[in-house]
Amino acid sequence: MSEVAKYIENVKKYAPKADEAAVAGIVRHCGIALRNRDSSLVSATDPAELKRVVDGFCKKKLARTESDDALMEAVKAVVGKMKAENQKSRVTVYYLLAEHFGQLALFHPKAK
Questions:
Q1: What angle do CA 28, 29, 31 make, to 5 degrees?
Q2: Which residues does 97 contact at the CB level (< 8 Å), separation at least 6?
Q3: Which domains does the chain have, with CATH numbers?
Q4: Are 90 and 10 within 8 A, CB to CB?
Q5: Which of 83, 97, 18 minimizes the C-alpha distance to 53?
Q6: pLDDT confidence bin for 110, thresholds 50/70/90
Q7: pLDDT by residue (tens digit) across 36-65?
Q8: Three-state DSSP class for residue 42
Q9: Confidence at residue 112, expressed as pLDDT on a 0 to 100 scale
Q10: What is the C-alpha to C-alpha distance for residues 24 and 21, in angstroms, rounded to an integer?
C-alpha cells in the first residue's frame, strides 16, 4: 500500500467521495511530520495542539482570516466528527478542514 493510499482510506471514513489528488497534496504538505508517529496525529484533547492547527494550518496554509474563535470552532467540529477514533490522523483532520472551507483545490498539483 502506498503512503498516500493509507491516508486516503482513513479520509474516506469521513468523506466517502474524497478527492484523492487533494489527499496526496496534503500528504506532500505535511511531509516529514508524517514520518514521526506523534507528529502524524492530532491530539484533540490538547488545547495547545488545536491552537497549532488553527495557527499553522488554518491561518498560514489556508490563509483564513476569521477570528481565532471561529477557526477553533471549525477545528473542534472536525475532531468532533472523528470522536470515534482515539488517534486522529493529521492528514484526515487537514483534509476535513480544507473541505469545510471549500479549499481542497489548494492541494491539487499545479499545472506546468
A1: 65
A2: 53, 57, 58, 62, 74, 75, 78
A3: 3-107 (1.10.238.120)
A4: no
A5: 97
A6: confident
A7: 999 999 999 999 999 999 999 999 999 999
A8: strand
A9: 55
A10: 5
Cell numbers describing residue 29: 504538505
- Tell me the whole-structure pTM to 2 decimals: 0.95
Residues 74, 111 contacting (CB under 8 angstroms): no
Residues 83, 65: Cα–Cα separation, whole Å: 27
If DSSP states are collapsed to H, E and C, what string results for 70-112?
HHHHHHHHHHHHCCCCCCEEHHHHHHHHHHHCCCHHHHCCCCC
Q: What is the DSSP letter of 32?
A: G
Residue 60 to residue 103: CA distance in whole angstroms: 13
Q: What is the mean pLDDT of the chain?
A: 94
